[in-house]
Amino acid sequence: MLRASFRRENVVGVFAFGSWPKAGFCHSFCRIDLVRNVVGDVAMTLAAFNLRDVTLGYDGHPAVHHLDGEIVKGSLTAIVGPNGSGKSTLLKGLVGAIQPMGGLIERIGFQTYDIAYLPQASEIERSFPATVEDLVTLGLWRRKGLFTAIFETDRKDVSKALVAVGLEGFQTRAISALSGGQLQRALFARVLLQDAKVILLDEPFTAIDSKTVSDLIALVRRWHAEQRTIIAVLHDIELVRETFPDTVLLAREPVAWGKTVDALIPENLLKARRMNEARDETAPWCEPDAA
Ligand SMILES: Nc1ncnc2c1ncn2[C@@H]1O[C@H](COP(=O)(O)OP(=O)(O)OP(=O)(O)O)[C@@H](O)[C@H]1O
Ligand SMILES: [Mg+2]
């Protein structure tokens, strides 16, 4: 039996930046080492996600590349970067909504259906004729399956989740009649019901008031205390610094990947902005070498 004598090596941020102003898709800037646990002679990864030189994109065009690193189980990670830097694309890759054009994404100890994913608001169809209860009940699908009857116990669970996000009594309200903040709360209620090990949130706090942000942040902290793996895209750097211990800073490729205090230094933020501005949309894609 292995004894619990852990030697933890946190090795983060081995960077080799090239001439970044010429950023296209054939410039590899960084390679980030891993967080590993070593038990005796057996190396045991703590990763939930393991990415190996991943390229993600659409219709044969890469959107973000050289994604190379790990997201540790139970970690609370922010994904930060300018508009168009590939943040949502990375989440779509992690949840399996798009497949890598190159490289490998490993999900360790769970499947894509174990992930709760809250897409960016712009991707949510609000004109769909559904009530808040319909929306939140979708969080039960893994437990119940789709197209099954909803029982009184399910209704009680939905009701409890709505109370938890401050939407008591909103069951019959049409989702088209919700404010942005109320919709965000309803989506968090759905995530609550999903009871997922891994939670991906794409800009969950954009365009909502500070009271709603602090209520929803409290839920995120609770999920983190419950050892769930949480990854959220955010633009509010101060909120990231206050709440998220780990950060991936993107500019069509990782600029920094590690502890927030190290990743979000002004130099890296400037670098990300310049790299994103200087990217060459017509640069050829450096197709990964055949194995
Ligand atoms: N469905 C799509 N089809 C084609 N290209 C896409 C698609 N979605 C995103 N892109 C492109 O991929 C690149 C990265 O987009 P992505 O949505 O990941 O950026 P982002 O960092 O999430 O930006 P934002 O902060 O504006 O949400 C952009 O150039 C974008 O135009
Ligand atoms: Mg986005």
What does this 3D model show about the protein?
- The chain has helices at residues 87-95, 132-137, 141-144, 152-164, 180-194, 210-225, 237-243, 260-263, 266-278; strands spanning 6-10, 35-39, 42-45, 47-58, 61-72, 76-80, 102-107, 115-118, 198-202, 229-233, 246-250, 254-259.
- By secondary structure, the protein is an alpha/beta fold.
- The protein has a six-stranded mixed beta sheet with strand order 8-9-10-6-11-12, sandwiched between helices. A three-stranded antiparallel beta sheet has the order 1-2-3, with no helix packed on it.
- It is globular.
- The model is unreliable at 1-43 (pLDDT under 50).
- The chain binds adenosine-5'-triphosphate and magnesium ion (MG).
- The site of magnesium ion has 4 residues, from helix 1.
Offer a few descriptive terms.
291 residues, 9 helices, 25% strand, alpha/beta, binds magnesium ion
Give a quick summary of the entry.
This protein is of the alpha/beta class and 291 residues long. Helix content is 30%, strand content 25%. The strands form three sheets. Strands 8-9-10-6-11-12 form a six-stranded mixed beta sheet, with helices on both faces. A three-stranded antiparallel beta sheet has the order 1-2-3, with no helix packed on it. A three-stranded antiparallel beta sheet has the order 5-4-7, covered by helices on one side.
